[in-house]
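Example complex used in Figure S2.
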Amino acid sequence: MRRALVVAAALSGACAPSSGAPAMTWTVRDLFDEVAAPEAAGAAEAYWGGFEPGRLAVARGPIPWRGAPSATGDVEVEDGPALVVQPAFADGAPAAVLITEIWDHHPAPWVQPSYLPVRAFEPSAPFKAALDGARPVLNVDEGSGFYSPFWRMVYAVMPEGTDGASLVSEGAVLSLSTSLADGPLVSWPLVPPGTRLARGAGEATAVQPLTGQPVADRRLADGWRDGKKVTWLSLGADHFTARADGLVDEVPLFAFVRQEDGGHREGLDLPFVLAHHPLTQSLARRVEVVVDASMAVFVPAPNEALRAAVEAQGLAAPVPDAAIPEAVARSYTLRVAADSTCFGDAARFPQECRWLDSQEAVEALPPSRRVRTETLVTAATLRVGDEVLR
Amino acid sequence: MSRAGASFALSGVGRSAKAATIRSERSGCFGRPTARERRVRRFGPRAFALAALLSLPGFAQARDAGEPDTVEVPDDALPQGFTPPADSSAETLRFTGYVDVGFARATGNGSSFADSDQRVPLDYGVDAFAPAVNSRGDVASTDARGRFTNGFLPRSVAIGNRPSFLLNTASLDLRFNPRAAPVSVFVRAQAMPRWSPGGDATRFELQQAFGKLTPLSTQELALSAGRFDSVFGFEYTENEANLRPGITPSLTARYTTGHSLGVKVFSRVQLPALWSAVSLNAAATNGGTRVEELVPQSASLTGVPVGSARLGYELNLQHLQAKLGVSGLYGARNDQRSAGAMQAGFGLDARATAFGVSLAGELLRLVDDPGPLAGKFTGQGTAELASGFQVWGGWVRALWTLPWHGETLTALSVYGRYDARKAQFAGMAWVVTNRFTAGVRLDFTELLALKAEALWNRELAGAPTVDNDVFTSSAVFTW
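Predicted assembly (869 residues):
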């Protein structure tokens, strides 16, 4: 989609006035291109719909959220580029989320079909009837404005004797299939081959960067798109829902921001707050939550470097009671409180604070504190508390 | 009409010059059938073969209605086009027109959409224009059954697979052509009665409305302003049912036969020693050359006009007429609002006519940049995104007018056409289709043409095989 970016850049210069912002889509491939050579792209400080590419992917050096100042220490990425697991909170618990696509001022994505050629449709175990040599066949790739990581698996029953390896385009599958049967909704962001989650040298898996809880690496799979091999990150089945017309349902993704003089909103390096039951929805709209002077960010007492970094963003990060157990403190690191009176008393921590760590809590703020944006993202929740994406 | 054309129209049938310049406008005016009889008597069957072909109402008018065109032919082989009766040749205000009544049936569900196709957008993965039923390119159905489409659709007569009579077009032409001034005005208003599941969907359209200035009496030079025909290729000359030899347009007509709003210049230089002429037809318009179903023409959405042009060569011998053209277009695509998203096209066309046989064909290459802003705007409404797009396409046609005629049945022609199209929206599969068309046409004087046509559409790649063949017929009453 970089071409769209170039066009948009040109548009903002010499071309005729437009009626609005460019409709943009950024994919994992764009993220990797950006972090691998930000100078070449001329957008080292770019923000894509409010998201900083360098926080979502890393090519070399410290892993964002895990480099200094961090909760888990300075960790260098091994074999970048890689996707960075993002810290978040959901339903009052620490969470880990992966952002793979960003749509800004762009129509919301639709579910696209992914055809799996099968010998026969076996509702109880459809994959076991997959045609020998056949791979899923997709309709669209990242070059289309209608690219979507949200797919409907469709089992395409093929006549006996069909060579599965020859089915490399949806036209062939649709023309040859004798019947079609809908399967699950699957989250498959297309990615460059070899894509993985960022982890440090010697680490077995990626982790939630603030709590250190492990996050299972995701499997890469491949298939066909109009005769060409494509690779995707398998983020599981039935982690989103869609309307009858195919539009994917969306939920909010809350991002804390600071309101600057003149109305500009500046993004803050704080964990996102996810919607209720985030494992059930993966398309999220960025809703910016404007912090005010009454809010404070929890930083464990010993981590002065992190506190300084938070305060450098203009946020309050009062020193908490040193008696707060480390395990508890770790799970509240960078959590925002609308009322931080409990910070100073281990006996009252955390129950007597009013935390902004759930959709319900954020939506209890005055509506003027929340700004709905024109940015949608694929936010695949990898972990919420002890519940892990399967 | 140019001064040269007016001169011919006034001098008409009876003049004795060895060659006459036929200078045409849009639309057809038909001459007197007795002219053909005179030619046949004087020159026998061979002369008649050419004359019969040229005098096919559709064929003659297609040529005349075009570029605008000048054709050098021996006066004895002159067609009857543009030979108004003497008592009307002095008129400066004339009304003509036609009524196209059709009867058509499509197979399958009348559309190119397979019931099982869940791809998004649905119209990106098939050729929705394939099951055409009339000269406007309307198809039997575009019913997507609730599935998402994104503005790449023809208009529909909404008959599905049921045989139905259709009033394809009722067309009224008004021409103001003062003899004393080098200015003319042409207006074509059309009614297209239609039904849709939502009720009556009849449309009225001012398809053309332009003024034309021919400033030089000694040069073929015409300047037009308003809404007029495309200048790309030559299929646009056959847009109207009474001008088209067959019934349905080609698979690439959607890209080249639109009616654009803007300014146009036409110039031609005759090379009498070579029985040849070269011409240039160039336009700057709001929307370019695509049909209004795909691209709005009545307003510029980008503020930047689209340039298009055709450079043509004509060879006009007594028994052989040949035309070659190269066309191009470039400008901001007008189905979105950014002046930075361009469209570019290139085309070749050729026609040859000899001894009752006409061969014709076009080749097309077109590329669209993606629109960087959300929103896609067409003559049928608003869609989501103007995607990047590219297409290769072309067609060839052979038409044979049988060397036979009668008092009532004045011409009988058979024809066949082969179309091929390969198109891709960015990030999606190439859709490769082709089509075989066969038809017959009977002319009963110049007032009535009966046409019947069969279309066999085939999906070769990228699109599911669907049953979307068409039988269609048309009775065109011209007045």
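Residues 1-88 of chain B have pLDDT under 50 and may be disordered. Residues 34-55 of chain B form the longest helix (22 residues).
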